UniProtKB/TrEMBL annotation:
GO terms for cellular component: nucleus. It comes from the Eukaryota. Likely a component of a DCX (DDB1-CUL4-X-box) protein ligase complex. May interact with pic/DDB1. Pathway: Protein modification; protein ubiquitination. It is found in: Nucleus. Residues 247-355 form the CULT domain. This is Protein cereblon. Keywords: Metal-binding, Nucleus, Ubl conjugation, Ubl conjugation pathway, Zinc. The keyword NADP does not apply. Substrate recognition component of a DCX (DDB1-CUL4-X-box) E3 protein ligase complex that mediates the ubiquitination and subsequent proteasomal degradation of target proteins. Has an essential role in mediating growth by negatively regulating insulin signaling. It also has a role in maintaining presynaptic function in the neuromuscular junction synapses of third-instar larvae.
């Protein structure tokens, strides 16, 4: 990904200022969804100038994968930043930004000087109502409200069957396009997280973005979910993914060694089981937190609390026991009153889904890093890149 400057809605007729490619910071593998936090540590003067302009204006920039015109991205709003002085008069800027709205690049333009310009359009989040609303039985409206919990869903299913009795289609067809029922089915797949105290959104739009950013999927699949305008279609695709991956396990991307089960995952922060963290060098790691893991070995170095992402915890680097590739870190509590006392933080790029007996990747995994003509050991060096505007 490239760090570049602020985006505005095209409807306001403002141009978007973008940094030149050779002055940008690359953020590999990261696809930003609305609601997600993006941490940035920057030491290069040009990106620092861009961030200063963002902070002085409206604190907004954008993140997108530049493949061609009409690329889709997400605006990000800076909500926290610090500036630290370094040696020789240099500065280090640390920024935290939150994904806000999806956008589409309409036109990229070159102008004299160093800064190219692009026009973008903010995309709406289309959330349709119940599919059979126009032909419903109005006398049953008093039974349609309430929270989409499992008891209310049973009542809604009964009402839906009665409504569909006067239509050409059975109720199960309408259920495929009902946002509340889609959300309920996705929550059923994620019950193991809710039982551990996980906070999963109930709003269909928020849920669709939460699932997309917490699933271990390839960047191409993540981008395809970001490109979908309709919440119902996004939820349908995510339900299909969850159904297919429900009984699978996490395996090492390089050698296929079994690492963990889906039920080993837990939520360590409010955003979900997978979050982006930035190390002191500026590298961003999308990290999944798990209670248990196997087939991993730890470095001999003693645990360190320096730059720990989790206050009160010390980290030790973890490698795959089979191929020795870097997998992430094991975090151990420095105090007895912290819970859990230990857990694993594994990078998303080190893991893929695997069946219990055979190698497996999600069905939309057809981008370059998993091309059939590419050796598996080289795939981690062939990610698609996205640009931060």
């Amino acid at each position: 990904m490239e760090l570049e400057e602020v985006i505005e809605d095209q409807d306001e007729q403002d141009d978007e200022i973008l940094n030149e490619d050779d002055e940008s910071t690359w953020l590999k593998w990261l696809v930003l969804f609305p609601g997600r936090t993006l941490p940035i540590v920057e030491r290069n003067p040009r990106p620092i100038d861009m961030l200063r302009q963002c902070i002085a204006k409206d604190r907004t920039f954008g993140v997108a994968c530049i493949r061609n015109v009409n690329s889709i991205g997400t605006t990000a709003e800076i909500y926290e930043y610090t500036v630290e002085s370094r040696m020789h008069g240099l500065e280090e800027v640390r920024v935290k930004a939150k994904g806000r709205q999806r956008f589409k690049i309409i036109r990229m333009k070159n102008i004299t000087g160093r800064i190219p310009v692009a026009d973008v359009k903010i995309l709406p989040e289309i959330e349709l109502g119940p599919p059979n609303y126009q032909c419903r039985i109005a006398s049953l409206d008093r039974l349609r409200g309430g929270v989409a919990d499992r008891f209310n869903i049973k009542r809604l299913n009964k009402v839906s069957r009665i409504d569909s009795a006067i239509t050409p289609w059975p109720s199960w067809v309408y259920n495929l396009y009902d946002p509340k029922k889609l959300s309920s089915r996705i929550h059923n797949y994620l019950k193991f997280l809710e039982s551990k105290g996980g906070n999963i959104p109930s709003d269909p739009t928020d849920l669709s973005f939460w699932v997309a950013q917490n699933l271990v999927i390839t960047p191409k699949t993540a981008l395809s979910l970001l490109e979908i305008d309709c919440v119902i279609l996004r939820l349908q695709r995510e339900e299909k993914l969850l159904r297919k991956l429900a009984n699978n396990v996490f395996v090492c991307k390089r050698c296929g060694a079994k690492v963990a089960k889906q039920t080993d995952v837990f939520q360590m922060n409010e955003e979900g089981v997978q979050s982006a963290y930035c190390n002191p060098a500026g590298a961003i790691h999308e990290t999944i937190t798990l209670y248990k893991a196997q087939s991993l070995v730890l470095d001999n170095a003693p645990p360190s609390s320096e730059y720990s992402w989790f206050p009160g915890y010390q980290w030790t680097i973890a490698h795959c026991g089979g191929c020795r590739s870097h997998m992430g870190w094991r975090f151990t509590a420095a105090q007895r009153d912290l819970k859990p006392q230990s857990f694993w933080g594994l990078t998303r790029t080190s893991l893929i889904w695997g069946e219990r007996e055979s190698h497996y990747c999600d069905e939309w995994d057809s981008d370059d890093e998993n091309d059939e003509t590419t050796d598996q050991s080289d795939t981690e060096f062939l990610p698609p890149y996205s640009n931060v505007y």
